[in-house]
Amino acid sequence: MSTSQTRTRVAVVFGGRSSEHAISCATAAGVLAAIDRDRYEVVPIGITKTGQWVLMPDDVEALAIKDKQLPEVKSGSGKEVLVAPSPEQHDILVLEPGETPEALTSVDVVLPLLHGPFGEDGTLQGLLELADLHYVGSGVTASAVMMDKHMMKVVFAAAGLPVGPYTVITDKEWRRDKAAAMDAVASLGWPVFVKPARAGSSVGISKVNGPDELEAAIEMARRSDPKVVVEAGIVGREVECGVLEGHGSDLPRASELGEIEEIGAHDFYDFEAKYLNDDGLRLSCPADVPADDAARIKELSITAFDAAGCEGLARVDWFYTPEGTLYLNEINTLPGFTPVSMFPQVWNASGLGYTELITDLIELARERRTGLR
């Protein structure tokens, strides 16, 4: 038996159709550079912005963000492939024009590094369930519900978790009566944050300081998603906690806390501050939070993880006010995963390095049964 046959074969899937395509590619660069090659055989699969799946070269440099230039999976980057949607085979099929699809290789587990719609929202997870494939991260329901900021808040409130004031503007409501929708927002007070309900990485988000700015902000959010969530501005620190599923019957594990501090020209944690402006923010791990409050945040983060039905991993984001009040902002079921992203950093501060974190997630996926669970 060859060395490759003794290793677990991992399909690393990245790119995708969402506005977070480039960040997904950058995440893949970090993972491909750090994954334990003695333990895992890697099959890199990129998804173009139009949804074509291609077998990609195992090239870290081509996927990294360099000089603020964003990477992209392009058609023609490699052979077109698809995952066989059948529990009878775990094959990657190569597509050649006019030819019957040919099996290239089978895979043991899929590591999705996709963010946003058509990747993080349960759609990819549904395909992998059809194929009876093990994969890293939450299943269809948790992925879909946690991707929708409105439904997420409904679940958290039902679980008794603290959620800040908000309102939702659906596509029908906006087209039917803009004035009524904006009146509902004004009742929250100012400032507010206007967000696409089902996008991520702060794409399409605006901080609105008064009614004159509101309509334009809603229209900008609607370019990413016709459903919009508007949240009351909360004065407080942005504190984040990583959660990992327990092995076997073990309980989920909470990491040390991290904190995001704005130190540049950006007055909130937008896309540019996250990925393109190195001096626009500071990530602190572990966060300087009193021990009792830190313990409470960790405990509530695990409660949120379980309430959402998450599996594998999640990053739980909180607002922590000067008075010690907590508001649950959101859960990310496939959080940013570049080496400098918050999720790997909080686990590194907890004693689990980047390579070990990747290994832990793959092994969790292999342990978990496929299908209903």
Automatic annotation (TrEMBL):
Q: Which residues bind Mg(2+) 2?
A: E330, N332
Under Gene3D superfamilies, the record lists:
3.40.50.20, ATP-grasp fold, A domain, ATP-grasp fold, B domain
Quote any Pfam family the record assigns.
Dala_Dala_lig_C
Q: What is its EC number?
A: 6.3.2.4
Subcellular location per UniProt equals: Cytoplasm
Keywords, ordered alphabetically: ATP-binding, Cell shape, Cell wall biogenesis/degradation, Cytoplasm, Ligase, Magnesium, Manganese, Metal-binding, Nucleotide-binding, Peptidoglycan synthesis
The record lists the catalysed reaction(s) as: 2 D-alanine + ATP = D-alanyl-D-alanine + ADP + phosphate + H(+)
Q: Give a GO cellular-component term.
A: cytosol
Q: Which domain of life is it from?
A: Bacteria
Class of enzymatic activity (EC top level)? ligase
- SUPFAM superfamilies (alphabetical): Glutathione synthetase ATP-binding domain-like, PreATP-grasp domain
The coenzyme or cofactor needed here is: Mn(2+); Mg(2+)
Please name the pathway: Glycan biosynthesis; Cell wall biogenesis; peptidoglycan biosynthesis
Tell me how the cofactor is bound.
Answer: Binds 2 magnesium or manganese ions per subunit.
Q: Name one GO biological process term.
A: peptidoglycan biosynthetic process
Q: Which InterPro entries match?
A: ATP-grasp, ATP_grasp_subdomain_1, D-Ala_lig_Van_CS, D_ala_D_ala, Dala_Dala_lig_C, Dala_Dala_lig_N, PreATP-grasp_dom_sf
- Active site as annotated: E20, S201, S341
Q: What does this protein do?
A: Cell wall formation.
Which protein family is named in the record? Belongs to the D-alanine--D-alanine ligase family.
> HAMAP family under this entry?
Dala_Dala_lig
Q: What is this protein called?
A: D-alanine--D-alanine ligase
